[in-house]
């Protein structure tokens, strides 16, 4: 699992381990946070390993995959959650380097990690791929054009993969949260904006990392045999408006 040292990634890693999966906790910089996720999983009786890799770099990703293969023999599931940095500003104030750079990095990371895990999945004729998107792909919010646009590209990328990889027994889906509490991106919301988001959410609260983790766990489970190319909107009903 990429981007698994904190927030949604750490919570999802813990849940998947609880359900019997061996979990790779990928991280970019925070080795102590990643090791804590691993320690918590192992303390609960699960199996996990922390591996450092910048998912935008093919060599780093290949090294990570080789470490996993050496330890556990293969890869059945990819959950791509790594948050690529982006500018938070209006389009009028944005440069092409900021918008185009985010698009390039977002798709490069998804392309790189997917390419790396596909050989094992296609060889065994079974695999599960889940990309973490965002409700901002379909529901714009001021200053979030770089994130929303790049994640919209990721969603369409996932649909094309779902079409191509389905005959090989590999499902590809997106989990697209609305605003999520207890994450780095949550700090982008000021109190007034947060109250507007709450008012637009029929379930009366913002998502927690565990809500997103549950959706991911469903998609990657063996019971999910006939859903691919879909997007799970984890937003408490906000997308109905």
UniProtKB/TrEMBL annotation:
TM region(s), chain numbering: none
SUPFAM superfamilies: NAD(P)-binding Rossmann-fold domains (SSF51735)
One Pfam family here: adh_short_C2
InterPro entries in UniProt: NAD(P)-bd_dom_sf (IPR036291), SDR (IPR050259), SDR_fam (IPR002347)
Membership in a protein family: Belongs to the short-chain dehydrogenases/reductases (SDR) family.
UniProt-recorded name of the protein: SDR family oxidoreductase
Lineage: Bacteria, Bacillati, Actinomycetota, Actinomycetes, Kitasatosporales
